[in-house]
Design brief:
The protein has 320 residues and is an alpha/beta fold. The protein has 13 helices and 10 strands. The chain binds (3S,4R)-3-hydroxy-2-oxopiperidin-4-yl beta-D-xylopyranoside. This is Beta-xylanase.
Length: 320
């Protein structure tokens, strides 16, 4: 009943990923993926910019491949994501659509995508990162909320439920491991939505950590308060980055600290009964998003480039 997952890298194209698609070209990568995990998440392949290259067009190939791989290997799939401010195609954000058209486009997208994978997705991140770190709704940079108002978030959950009644429907965000302004905003919003009968099933925290900022406090208290609302919880995108000069190797101290952070995240999840899955955001440094997005940090995953195991891998194993 507990799932250990990873994001699946590549699977198509991405200008942000300066390497060939490992999912289709790296057999050792696929072997580890099949063997070490019982849950997989599409790192990019179910996002709008992947699925929707042109208006009215759905390009399902890369996402289908991941779902088929998971099935062959007895893995569940986390769907990521339906409503987000980022990675939306230009035809959508610059298309000059009316509000009525945008609502229609989102409804069509959710029905089509969630419907296609009906029965094959364990959890959907229906809404991703809708609050900023102050707990303010992203009503400018999120096109859906800006154009259609906050009620569109409830609509998204309702449309997803209709398209796949068994998939668990989640809010997902970063910097919500602990109790803070942002997680408080989710707590208040979800309470409100549940009172209105909106089908929200889960709250998940991504878990992108950095040794620079320390380990977040209150993880278990935070997860437990969402559980008391009747929700499932999950940790969905764990990685632990560290300061690293280009070409440098982490010190033993950094690796030990990293192992400790991974283990504390997993232990936190395991100690809260509502927390049903722990997913890392890639398992090998050479395919990690971290050095691309955080230029002076790296080495954030649990394996070296040859798939040998870091202390963090062993720390996770020890907790299971
Ligand atoms: C990242 C991917 O890992 C990158 O390959 C991509 O270029 C940008 O997005 N929070 C999320 C994920 O919810 O979708 C992000 O994934 C990482 C932060």
């Amino acid at each position: 009943g507990f799932f250990i997952g990873t994001a699946v890298a590549g699977g198509g194209h991405h200008e942000d990923q300066p390497y060939p698609d490992p999912f289709s070209s790296d057999q050792p990568y696929r072997n580890v993926l099949a063997k070490e995990f019982n849950s997989v998440s599409a790192e990019n392949q179910m996002k709008w910019d992947f699925l929707r290259p042109e208006p009215g067009v759905y390009r399902f190939g890369p996402a289908d491949d991941i779902v088929a791989f998971a099935k062959r290997n007895n893995q569940v799939v986390r769907g990521h994501t339906l409503l987000w401010h980022s990675q939306n195609p230009a035809w959508l954000t610059e298309g000059g659509y009316t509000k009525a058209q945008l609502k229609q486009i989102l409804r069509d997208h959710i029905r089509t995508v969630v419907g296609r994978y009906k029965g094959k997705i364990q959890q959907w991140d229906v809404a991703n990162e809708i609050f900023d770190d102050q707990g303010v709704l992203r009503s400018q940079d999120n096109i859906w909320i800006r154009e259609l108002g906050p009620g569109i978030v409830a609509d998204a959950f309702r449309w997803a439920r209709q398209a796949d009644p068994k998939a668990k429907l989640y809010f997902n965000d970063y910097n919500v491991e602990g109790i803070n302004a942002k997680s408080n905003a989710y707590y208040a919003l979800i309470q409100d939505l549940l009172a209105q009968g909106v089908p929200v099933d889960g709250f998940s925290t991504q878990g992108h950590l950095s040794l620079r900022y320390g380990f977040p406090g209150d993880l278990t208290d935070n997860l437990r308060r969402f559980a008391r609302l009747g929700l499932e919880t999950a940790i969905t995108e764990v990685d632990v980055r560290m300061d690293l000069a280009p070409g440098a190797t982490p010190t033993p101290e950094q690796l030990a600290k990293q192992a400790e952070y991974y283990q504390r995240m997993l232990d936190g999840c395991l100690s809260v009964s509502s927390c049903n899955s722990f997913t890392i955001w890639g398992f090998v440094d050479k395919y990690s998003w971290v050095p691309v997005f955080f230029p002076s940090e790296g080495a954030a995953t649990i394996m070296w480039d040859d798939f040998s195991r870091k202390p963090a891998y062993h720390a996770l194993r020890d907790s299971l």
